[in-house]
Please model this.
Amino acid sequence: MRVSVVGAGLGGLALAQGLRGAGIEADVFERDPGIAARFQGYRLVLNPVGFQAVRDCLPTRWHPLLGEIVMDASAEQLILDPQLNEIGRLGAGRTAIVVDRQVLRHLLLTGLTVHTDAVLTGYDVMADGKVQARFARRDPATADLLVGADGVTSAVRGVLSPQTTPTDTGVRFVIGRTPLTDEFAGLSKAYGSKITGDGVSLLLGAMRFRTPPKQAAEQLAPEVTLPDIGDYVRWAMILPPNGSLEDLTAQDAVLSRMEGWHPQLRALIEQADPDNSTLLSIRVVKPGERWASGPVTLLGDAIHATSPTGGNGANTALRDADLLRRCLIEANEGRQDLLSAVDDYERKMFEYGTEAVRSSLEKLPAFAPEAKLS
Model:
């Protein structure tokens, strides 16, 4: 069996790793001109399902390394004012596993065949049931299954399910990161909480590695090369829907809304890495009607993009990868045919993917009351 995966995000890479470990050929096609063409390095919170999914997709020899580059984190989930006074609670406190996206992505990339600058222009299902993917600047690729793991603007989805389109909630947020120094020790109670003021919400999260990733890889898995990165604070400010940024830089857009805020909060933004600060929009993709069964399917944000306020986007994509991996192994071992395996995956994925989008949107008004949810 051969599988073509379009998209080198976490979900697509986890699937390719899981298939590779089972002896199934998997090629990854990425539209970016290079693996490191854009920064993809913010802190992620993994729930037990997401963490177990990525663990199961990785070779067992890398499990000790995976355990060393994550951290256990607990948060009280408070609501604080701009002077860091507690004024409410978001919900019950929680404990989770935290990982850096860039570090995890480099681990997942190890040993895979990834074709960059591969812009999908379409695909054709052949007479023999195989599928041929067409690209703008490279030869077509033929496989038994084509998986669209290519995000919110998925080119695969555009052909497979053109009626399924992204919805823009109107909410924008600025995200960045700042080295975690002793200066910011006093902000610890704000990590995992929401700071609210002047129509905006600021969210902070600490990333503290058990062992620096580069060092951990050198010690535990020399064949893996991980980024040389230190502890940091990930911050994100959710802005009012359609608020004007007045051509400001990402940092200045945040600071312009923090007049009179606690000095440590302002210093956190002022000392951020400007190259790793950016403005993003919150768009969602709600799974619609199932498409006709065939040798093409979707995974992750391509079919169920969630609001980040749900904290379940990466978790759901990794769950997809592990589920599809298991279904394809059954087909490869002759326990069911390929189309039945894909159908099993899609049936389950649609159910929990729809719920993931719904629950993420349910939480969005707590951070952006004027968001468009319809």
